[in-house]
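Page 37, continued from 36.
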């Protein structure tokens, strides 16, 4: 039996903290490409986000709230959120 493969995707660019400009939710984020974003929500961030808090499904069923995209785009434009594989 072979050894499990080590997941080293975060070695080149670990997740970074991000604060939503609308609700101040704090979560972790990583931009792998222009079109691919990984988000790591915690209980406090879900509670702070009015859109996720109002969702009929428990937890962040979607990638995030619609307003979070604006915060992500602003951080990329400012150069504070790096895209690992730019287009």
């Amino acid at each position: 039996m072979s050894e499990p493969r080590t997941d080293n995707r975060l070695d080149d660019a670990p997740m970074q903290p991000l604060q939503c400009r609308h609700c101040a939710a704090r979560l972790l984020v990583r931009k792998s490409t222009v079109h691919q974003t990984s988000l790591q929500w915690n209980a406090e961030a879900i509670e702070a986000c009015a859109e996720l808090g109002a969702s009929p499904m428990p937890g962040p069923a979607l990638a995030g709230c619609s307003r979070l995209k604006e915060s992500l785009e602003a951080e990329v434009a400012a150069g504070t959120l790096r895209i690992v594989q730019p287009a």
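The longest helix spans residues 68-78. Flag for discussion at group meeting. The CA atoms of residues 30 and 85 lie 11 Å apart.
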